[in-house]
Design brief:
alpha+beta; five-stranded antiparallel β-sheet; 5 strands; elongated
Length: about 130
């Protein structure tokens, strides 16, 4: 997975990079105002010679991207299903199934947050302007 962005801060061997998100329609949201096209700030290790304003390419290994997606989406979905099944099995009541699913969602999100690595595995490379 690759994105490009501009360095906004260099500090103690780390950089902060502003990455403009692209929407599914190609990122021209200013013209139609149909969806938000805000920027995110990504922090990673600084390559040698980088300075504020440089254009950099950020790269995250595909396996790390999919691992994080599985944590963020897969674990909560599994917990929702298990909570719904347990709620229904215990009481044979649809209301308990809904409550079990909601409890599973909350628990699944907490587990996903605890299992998510704190450090991003993102590499930065300076691009020629």
């Amino acid at each position: 997975m690759e994105q490009t962005g501009y360095v906004t801060e260099v500090n103690n061997g780390k950089i902060k990079v502003r990455v403009d998100r692209e929407s599914a329609c190609g990122g021209n949201c200013v013209s139609c105002k149909g969806c938000p096209a805000d920027a995110i700030i990504v922090e990673c290790d600084a390559p040698c010679g980088v300075k504020v304003g440089d254009l950099v390419k950020l790269t995250m290994p595909t396996k790390h991207f999919y691992f994080r997606a599985m944590l963020g989406y897969g674990i909560p979905v599994v917990f929702i299903i298990v909570g719904a099944v347990l709620g229904y099995t215990a009481t044979k009541n649809d209301g308990a199934s809904i409550i079990g699913a909601a409890a599973g969602l909350v628990l699944g999100l907490l587990v996903a947050k605890l299992l998510t690595p704190k450090k991003n595995k993102i590499d930065a490379e300076i691009l020629d302007n």
